[in-house]
Amino acid sequence: MKPAAFDYYAPLTTEAALALLAEHGEEGKILAGGQSLVPTMAFRLARPATLIDINRIASLDFCRADDEVLRIGALTRHARFETPFLPGPLGALLADVAHNIAHTPIRSRGTFCGSLAHADPASEWCCTALTLGATMVVANHVSERRVAVADWFQSLFTTALQPDELLTEARLPLRDESWRYGFYEFNRRAGDFALAMSVVALRLEGGVVREAQIGLGGVGTTPILAKDAAAALIGQAPGEAAWGIAAELAATCFEPTEDINASPEYRRDLVRAVTKRALRKAVA
Amino acid sequence: MDGIGASVRRIEDPPLLRGEGRFAADIDLPGQLHMRVVRAGMAHGRILSIDTAAAAAIPGVVAIWTGADVASLPPIGFRMMGLTALEPYRQPILAQRVVRYVGEPLAVVFAEDPYVAEDAEELVYADIEALPVIIRAAGPIGDFDAAHGTEPTIIRKAYGDIAAAFAAAEHVVELELAVGRHTGVPLETRGASAAYDAATGRLAMHGAAKVPHTNRIAIARMLDLSLDQLHLHEGHVGGGFGIRGELYPEDVLVCLAAMRLGRPVKWIEDRREHLMAANHSRDQLHRIRAAIDARGFVLGVEDEFWVDQGAYVRTHASTVPDLAAGMLPGPYLFPAYAAAAHVRLTNKTPAGTYRAPGRFEGTFVRERLIDAIAERVGLDPIAVRRINLIPPESMPFDRGLDALGTPLVYDSGDYALLLDKFLRHLDYEMLQASLATRRAAGEHVGLGLAFFVEKSGLGPFDDVRLELDAGGRAVLVTGAASVGQGVETSLAQITGEMLGISYLDVTVVHGQTDRIARGMGAFATRVTVMTGTAIVLAAEKLRARLLAKAAELLQQPVSALVLRDGAAQAEGGSPSIALPALIAACLAEEDAPRMVAEATFESGHMTYPYGIHLAIARVDAETGGVVLERLAVAYDIGRTVNPMLVEGQIHGGAAQGIGGALMEEFLYDEDGQPLCTNLADYVMPTSGEMPPIDILLTEDAPSGIGRLGVKGAGEGGTTAAGAAIAAAVDAALGGRVPITQLPITPSRLHAAMKQAGFE
Ligand SMILES: Cc1cc2nc3c(=O)[nH]c(=O)nc-3n(C[C@H](O)[C@H](O)[C@H](O)COP(=O)(O)OP(=O)(O)OC[C@H]3O[C@@H](n4cnc5c(N)ncnc54)[C@H](O)[C@@H]3O)c2cc1C
After folding, report:
1. How far is the CA of A115 from the centre of ligand 1 (A)?
2. Residue B190 pLDDT > 80
3. Which of B107, B541, B704, B739 could form a disulfide with B730 if both were Cys (CB 3.0 to 4.6 A apart)?
């Protein structure tokens, strides 16, 4: 469990980091919190020739709410969200989610953007970003572009990020007061990657659901939007009847993965349970 | 006030808390090389060739060995319970022509630093032709090699007339029960460093644990050294649990390399290796049947079981099946009994003992059987237990079996009394009533209880040397070992009690083969009983000399004097003489720097502590998740040297039992590839999953073996946890879902609930 040899750079500016990325291409890897990358290197499942450590780039260390968006810089650690970063339901959701990511030491190093770049299908932040409709800000040494989250996750551990690009920031839309959020995951131990999770967002008006998103994580090769399940809620009064219908649709809208912890059939049953529970929490 | 019975703090802790511990990885010897083991990636295959050229070409690589380089060494032998029939299945230190499990040492690389060693390891290429893989112990018998099958032996134990029991039975209750493959996972992985001094011909190995003296003999024999050429040294040990400290291929390779290469050699195991290479345990499938009469009294029990030994038979030989078969009857009368244990070789990591070996499995099997009997005759599970318990007037109770080569005679016990005390302690009726209320409100919550009998104090002997210096401080030298269990503290307390000094004035030297000639080490919960009594015997010799001298100086009859508070004194405290002065007077006569006494305690019988576990579990019906709300343990260990240490043992043991009950399992695919080789996939309980643990310690049945009345406390926290938790889950689901397999993982439980028509 000793990594293969690598070169190490610790640039002080984003420009310098991007220049290094351009120079090293496929061989260069960004080191953020290191909580996913370093273990894979120790197992020699990853053997980047060059590490570009962004931890000293002060300009990437920000997290702030601007007019309509929450801007999460590349060095924002998971722990930043443990106590609600924002007032209201969104801050509460992010705090709930953060507490379910790994353990305290990992949360104090691992980054929000690192999770999105790594794209583990069981990542809580990935599921959250997809459900809430995040936008990624990515840059290379010549330009910057924005990627909608719908185009971000491509397959297992694969995103729209190019080898010469840095994810400088992720943006979460700040929605109005009529939105409610809920999160629930099932895992074998506190802090483990979930066997199934659901993040939901509901806009309630006049006693019925007007808009809805239901995200699922840990059950396929990427996080998943259960669109039919969400659509079935529109116009419904919040409650067990509606949740049951949505959960049923959620459970059948994806191709479940299989691993030592869960068969495909079990995963569908878990999705049924976590979706219902996330919906219940949203209106609790 | 800090002698026997006091919950004093551990003398081990200050250096550990200050980060001054000296664990295996902390030992660095000047000029050392680093060893890295190349491990088989295939579960069973014939080695056609091993190409080391590319690896050898890396700068910094000093040597690479394959099986051919060590072919002259014998395989690793048996430390205990060896049988001739098992000898062909012993493990060579590097695979010879055949690999038998993923993780088997195939070659070793020695390099200037551990990174280079790992780089080189990757470049060693073995061409291996696949052979058929066996991963199910209870399947058909296969071939180990041309001359030997995969079932070397069946261990049988029996007493009474089993045929008559079944002939007379009103009911027969039959179950198939399985305990998964799991093991002790110490926080510190294994490690060893060795240095050889060619000038003196002496070899020293650091990183020894558990049984340094025994391993010294074994290594010396394998390397053809005389005993005085080799010494083993134990440092701090980050957990033993049965698996750490046994003799493994890597220990021998490190020693051999230090001699052959003329430089110190260091090896530290990584976690991935640990989970594939250190002993696994458990993994038994039992088919058990009981003949019972109309009121649930058991007339006879017949058990046939299969033990998945893995790919080789290691140091423990037949220990686990022997203990499982011998101790399965536990606290019950069972007038007739017959067990047959099939020892089976498969293509998994070899197995050995793990905390409560054979008893965790056997207790699960027996207590599930008792629960099934209760169900069958429509009685309360506790009522059925009561009518089958061995009554106190039958003690000592000769089981009519043996275990670990000793006759199984329960030395003392009042099982029903402990049950009464425990139920009262728990306010059992209230507890059941509150669970019934919760169930009525729709919760799936239940309670399970399981009895166990443990064993401890295995002989045959323990030696100690006790020294008193002029300042009145004692040094205790023992051949016992510390695996982190608090041995130094409890032995110091016993010594202090005997000599009338504080335990803080006692230094305990253990695990050093150059400090005492013989030693048995620390296993089978033996030290407090065996070493403890040897201390009493040695201390009595010193005490006799001290008190005789004090009698002379104080002009008092010897019988009027005691050693207390660092002085020899008469009842009431006066007259008195402080120990330093008294020791000086003794030493003046002897012209020696210290007073020394040696003693040996020999015993051919074990002691048998006993206890009960109670678990309360809640099932999440939609996910199959189990939340363990509470675990309570009642334990009678005869006499407690340090209650805090005993409680610590129970807590740690319970965590391991909970792991085995709900989480921990080494899974393999059909090709024999291990699927749980890191701590994300091998799921152990963390503080987040630990329920509050409620402990009731009693001292109602002191042991007549040894001089202290103590029985061991090391394993009972684990023993019945699996059985009690299974019963609790069973009860939570209203008996509708049979819980016959550990661990009760969410996916397994969910599937079983679906099958049982749960919605
Ligand atoms: C024991 C353990 C348990 C865990 N449990 C969970 C869990 O339950 N849920 C969960 O979501 N995660 C879990 N994690 C992973 C953890 O959350 C990681 O922190 C996270 O996945 C990655 O963030 P990081 O900053 O550590 O990224 P790193 O490990 O530094 O990098 C991960 C990958 O992303 C790339 N990368 C990182 N930042 C950027 C960037 N700004 N631009 C471009 N590429 C980038 C890296 O090059 C690398 O390929 C666990 C980790 C451990 C060790």
Report:
1. 5
2. yes
3. B739
Superfamily of domain A180-283: CO dehydrogenase flavoprotein, C-terminal domain (3.30.390.50)
Three-state SS for B385? helix
Q: H-type helices in B356-461, by residue range?
A: 359-377, 381-388, 415-426, 428-440
* CB B620 within 8 Å of CB B725: no
User: pLDDT value at position A67?
Assistant: 84
Residue with tokens 């329920």: B691
* Distance (Å) from CA A192 to ligand 1 centroid: 14
State the Rg of chain B over Cα. 27
Nearest residue of A to residue B663, measured between CA atoms: A188
- Determine if ligand 1 sits within 6 Å of the CB of residue A117: yes
8 Å CB contact between B512 and B27: no
Closest residue by Cα to residue B65 from B96, B30, B106, B101: B106
CA of B527: how far to CAs of B459, B635, B654, in Å? 10, 18, 20
CA-based nearest distance A56→chain B, Å? 27
Beta bridge partners of B272: none
Whether domain A7-53 has CATH 3.30.43.10: yes
What are the sequence ranges of the domains in chain B? 24-131+189-237+244-277, 281-457+606-755, 458-602
What's the whole-number mean pLDDT along residues B421-432?
98
Question: Which CATH number does B24-131+189-237+244-277 carry?
Answer: 3.90.1170.50
Decide: B54 and B218 in contact? Cβ < 8 Å: no
Comparing C-alpha atoms, which of A58, A48, A25, A17 is closest to residue A167? Answer: A17
And the tokens for B624?
């199959």
Give mean pLDDT, residues B312-330: 98
Strand ranges for A117-262 from DSSP E: 135-139, 144-148, 153-155, 158-159, 166-173, 179-186, 196-205, 208-217, 224-225
CATH topology of domain A62-173: 3.30.465
| Nearest residue in A to B119, CA atom | A4
Pair of tokens at residue B592:
């020696």
Model ipTM value: 0.96
Q: Which residues of A touch B122 (CB under 8 A)?
A: 44
pTM of the shown model:
0.97
pLDDT category at B325 given cuts 50, 70, 90 is very high
Q: Is the pLDDT of residue B1 over 80?
A: no
Instruction: Name the nearest CA neighbour of A138 among A108, A162, A112, A120.
Output: A162
- What is the CATH class of B281-457+606-755? alpha beta
Asked if pLDDT for residue B759 goes beyond 80, the answer is no
